[in-house]
Batch of 4 targets.
Target 1
Amino acid sequence: KLKNKMWLAASLGYAYGARSIINDELKDNKLSTIRLGITYAVPLGQHHSLRLVGFSGIRLEQGADFDSVSLLYQYRWNTNI
């Protein structure tokens, strides 16, 4: 169990498609990727928090392989909801 209202989330997605036709010719540019992500959030007070996000895209057919890491600051306007 995470302490002090911290939270952890994971995500998984699959993308398939994006074929194109140019001048009535079907191009071989179909994309097929799997995307994986994880987010960890730490509250810094009633209205403030920090989030650390890691994300990876894995190409199956065509497309880009990539990895990214982000550190985000978040301000929550209404905490009474």
Target 2
Amino acid sequence: MLFSKYCHNFSKNGHVALYNALNHEVVFFSQSLWQKFNKNFHNPDSAKLKSSASKIISNKLIKGGFLISNYSDDDKILEQKRKEFSEPCISNMYLLLNEGCNLACSYCFFEGNFAKRPPLNPMSLSFAKKAIDFYSNILKKVDPIVISERQKLINFYGGEPLLNRDVFEGSVIYISELIKKGNIPLDTRISLNTNGTIMDGKLAKFIAKHKIEVGVSIDGPKLIHDRNRKYVNGSGTFKKAVRAFKMLRDAGANVGVSCTVSESTVDKMPEILNWLIDVLGIKGMGFNPLIEHRDFKIVDGAYAVKIAKNLIECFKIARDKNIYEDRMMRKVKAFVGGYFYDRDCSAIGRQIVFGPNETVGVCMTYYATGKYFVKFDKDFDPFTNHIWTEWSKRMPVNIPKCLGCEALGICGGGCPFNADIRNGSIWEVDDFFCEHSKKTLEWLIWDLFDSMEK
């Protein structure tokens, strides 16, 4: 027997954890028992390996996929994963209602990828409806069983989408009509990302009525938020953002917070989370790491390590207070559920993004440059288009540098744009994300151990 190529071990406080990166199986040993077993295992003639205790351990390791008869067993499982996830299966759609925004956030990757600050350039309602119709039709091309298991999402994005309010409202009403007719699945979610600065009571009630999930961009208390989220004239947006959150909450909307973590706030993440919980009373939120773009580069070489560490600390707080934090929960659900987390970004074969210039692409981050976007016309088909077929395969199981990583089955590959801009190709690793995945995995393993001990 051989140890699987996807078997990794971790040591802590006199214990060893064996972890299978393909199926999330974990086996714990005392340090002394592991040393004895490992020594005997590498000495097949040892009588101790044939003892009843060693046979019990070996059978457990075989069952968990840690021990295999030959490496072709590993190769078969890996190939199965590749085939299972490699085909495009469009279930998400983004509508970029505007190119422009009323804010000038210092770290904005969407606006920052334009050569110069874009004007509003709003999407027309007629094109929004064409995009929605296309989404409706594309869902019908996917196997009904597969699509029923997938998250279906229509997200309004930008720029600031609510600057194109009429098209936003008209699109939501049109989507609702198609859902009632059965042309879009009933369990399709509608979401909105907004800076909150132009929210009013009537709009908040409309959002609540149509069960739209809203993420309001709030980076923390006033001094933190206003450092980066400000108008073109430099004035902060904190009061309006908080006002929008409360207005939506009071209207009964499903509202959470989208919090971007800058280099100056990364060490304050637990403090920010506690403020969001205690002062705003949030029930759900997501931390967003910085994304480099054009002339914006992260200076702090320890930023990735810091955010990985603090995401874990924030998850502990959120778990204790029953708050959903999206970034960590993606990995927690895969680890606990025992399923292979194939992609962290739906742009990898599961999404289409429509822009106001009547183009369609895989990722909104590329919209400004037009890379990975094509003109939307009657011949467009994401199931055959070379961009979508390439991106659908961009998963850790297909990236050579990822195959030996302990976090292979929990990572999802991070952000292709980050990999591209930092390392030259979507097929490179997102090295910032690697820190998050590896540290999260190790913490999850020992958190499981602590739970078993208790």
Target 3
Amino acid sequence: MDTAIAAPDPGSDGRPRLRLHIPAHHPAPGERPDFSYVPRLPAGAVERPDIAVPAQETHRLAYSLIRVLDDDGAARGAWDPKLDPEELRRGLRAMMLTRAYDARMYRAQRQGKTSFYMQCTGEEAIGVAQAFALAPDDMAFPTYRQQGILIARGWPLVDMMCQVYSNACDRLKGRQMPIMYSAREASFFSIAGNLGIQYPQAVGWAMASAYKGDHRIAAAWIGEGATAEADFHHALTFASVYRAPVVLNVVNNQWAISSHQEIAGGEAATFAARAIGFGLASLRVDGNDFLAVYAATRWAAERARANHGATLVELFTYRAASHSTSDDPSRYRPQDEWQNWPYGDPIERLSRHLTGLGEWSPERHKQLEGELADEVREAAREAERFGTLDSGPTFSAKTMFEDVYKEMPWHLKRQRQEFGV
């Protein structure tokens, strides 16, 4: 990418004219995909510091890219977590199940069974590998596209589907948009549509956990576009000052709806580099590499657990699907761009790695795809027994007054009476 700055043109009075820099739009529909800005770093090339090093010693990693799996599927370098084949197969299965679940729910939305859906296609290694690397009771503060966390933690698909359908078995009683899950028993904090707010909530929760002498850490996720929100910077300040035991993840999937990551500040610096000004540790990771994501998350979690403070982790990935079912990505990017992402597909890469170890095969992969499709189909049939958004049954309107206050205040009681419920 050409970053040369042209000399300013002199004005009528001889003084140079100012110019506003506006990042050039990424290749438009019909143009060839251009990933010249993507770092081309070999697997295994990045050093792995001790978890106790001062944060400043990690800052050079903000401008690198932690990779473990090479182009042939072999694991390289110091970041290789050396997981046993059974653990790798569990991770592959969870990623494939997440993709199968997404595909089923996407079709359900197109059939009118729900109003809205968001897939995490191409980003499955993030939610799944990070769930594997964290303890089961570490508190997750996700944004959307982390459904893999719930699936990796064994949360029932039927429960997730009922939330998407807002049906009679939706534990949230239809109050949340589809895909904004909440599962306290899985240590999965409620997803919110107000982007960025999970960061200060996660930092505050982690501070409270440390203040009480608990053993649990927190982890939060945000998209690269939402790093422009004030909540992001507030959270980093508190995380730095109080050394909160939290892992702060930035999922840089290149697109904040239709705005490319350069508009969010990715042209001038990496998103991992945001940590430098706050004195936090920083890592930048190939988000499509299951082993790298696991290793970096485990490093950041161990650092937090050892009271060395928070780590900002940029997960460098690509949003293969549309932003949501309300989005048409063909209007702002080349239609085949996702097929040209230099770091490939996370499921294919882990499958290739296992095959290279002699622990997997294309035949077993295809068989598992069919089994998981059947599993998701059966879960969908079970969930639809309790209704869908278009066919009901739905919760009574009176439930909007419940589950907010321990004791309902007088003005809500009056409103409910006026409403006649």
Target 4
Amino acid sequence: MPQGSGWTENVLVKRLLFTLLALLVFRFGVHIPVPGIDAKELALFASQQGAGLLKIFNMFSGGALSHFSIFSLAVMPYISASIIIQLMTVVVPSLEQMQKEGGVGRQKITRITRSLSVLLALVQAYLLSAGLEASRGPNGGMIVLDPGLSFRLMSCVLMAAGSCFVMWLGEQITDKGIGNGISLLIFAGIVAYLPSSANTIIEMVKQNSGALLGALGIVAFALVLVFAVTFFEQSYRKVPIHYAKRLVGKRVMSAQATHLPLKVNMAGIMAAIFASTILAVPATFLSFGSSAGNVWLADFLPGHWLYNAVFVVLGMFFSFFYASIVFKSDDVAENLKKQNAYIPGVRPGSETAEALDTVVTRLTFAGAIYMNLIVVVPSLIGSAFSQQMTFGGTSLLIVVGVGLEAIRQVRAQLATQKYDFLIFPSQSRDTTTANNDTRL
């Protein structure tokens, strides 16, 4: 049934309100701790971690881990499971076949990913609870009031259930909200850190008036990074496409010239999230251990040369890997051939696929370099000038990238509203009047 502009506007408002409500529920759950924890000792322990596990995981959980909340794991198990399944899709024929089955196959892969997420959540929750039992606060006090198997099992059940709920909440935002639910939950967690980051800079200036110039430099550099991320995330390469004369129904369409937009950073924020997730593993062992054997793991923390080097390698790998998933040059070339379209100077079929592969490879390489620079350069500058970058490049990349995608989703809804009104103006007025009568 045709829908009018009034109906579309109401749907957009409902989607925005639903998204806001879901994010508020997530932020509320962040502050619900697992029973049996000394909150004061945990807070002191968290403040000593620096760039360790708590800081890395808090970027994804919105500070839940520093409270040992039921949402401590947040979407980390789901992200880890997604990485594993996507990597296995390349080497396991049955998973590759599922991916080619369309919607039904994607549903099967989604169910497998969810099941693996639950398993990983149980394992990660057990490791975190066991590590917290073995840790002590700065004053030597125990963080866990009653350590033992019962505490570990309770933590596993509560945190795994909390992670499943967060995963479900993200799916609801995707279905009933403005989309990209998992990314929006990560976005909400990072944005929640903005006030504390600003307060850190203010306190630094208060304690040392000479630090004002450094604080202004950090703010100016952050603005430059925001501009760079915004520019690259909205940059496209336009591949020219020509349509020959073709028969559509009973009409003969004349030749047309258009373009195929290819995003420069085709992997988006996913490459940075995947790389950060994998590099959080060494920090796990370092944060909950003090043995001499773990000293070498310190180089895997943000700001150290080994962390930056491994991040660049992982960032490049996941950029190309994710681009190969989201863009299938063979399928695009086949679709263009079926539509009697071609790239000027390139033959349809395999040569078109090769040409698109070349363009996508160059764009992905440029996008990977841009992404690595955004993440690594702030860390290098902070180390060179002995300034702590309270808002890292990964956080900035995620916030700006998700924010731009949310704006695109809202604009798409508004565009739908305008087109509905142009196509069905009388129905739009009737629907709006009916809605007003119903409200009365």
